[in-house]
Amino acid sequence: MEAHTPNPIEIQVETTYVEEQSRPEQDRYVFAYTITIINQGSLAAKLLSRHWVITDANSKVQEVRGEGVVGEQPHLQPGESYTYTSAAMLETPVGCMQGSYQMVADDGTHFDAPIPVFNLSTPNILH
């Protein structure tokens, strides 16, 4: 079995406030997030499932679990990346997300790739 780092996956995140889908007067704030998953390990790995923890400014927490991302379970060779865009809806103009992807390397090793916390905020909110 080839040696590899326990977490060879890098996660990059970009967020955007989706004003045209948001309804602030109804406490509905929609945010798009674009995730890039980069396999920095020495083995190929497949993304099996996701777990998100989404928290708004009122400390309301939503947990989301499911297979794959946007209907896919990307299999990333060493050095490959996969990018997708999804969205989250909050009841407040600011919040945050974090979570993990459950992965399996080609040698059968299962591991979690943590997704660091990132902020969601409307443009008029100071960071």
Automatic annotation (TrEMBL):
GO terms for biological process: error-free translesion synthesis. Residues 3-127 form the ApaG domain. InterPro entries: ApaG_domain (IPR007474), ApaG_sf (IPR036767), Uncharacterised_ApaG (IPR023065). It comes from the Bacteria. This is Protein ApaG. The lineage of its organism: Bacteria, Pseudomonadati, Pseudomonadota, Gammaproteobacteria, Methylohalomonadales.
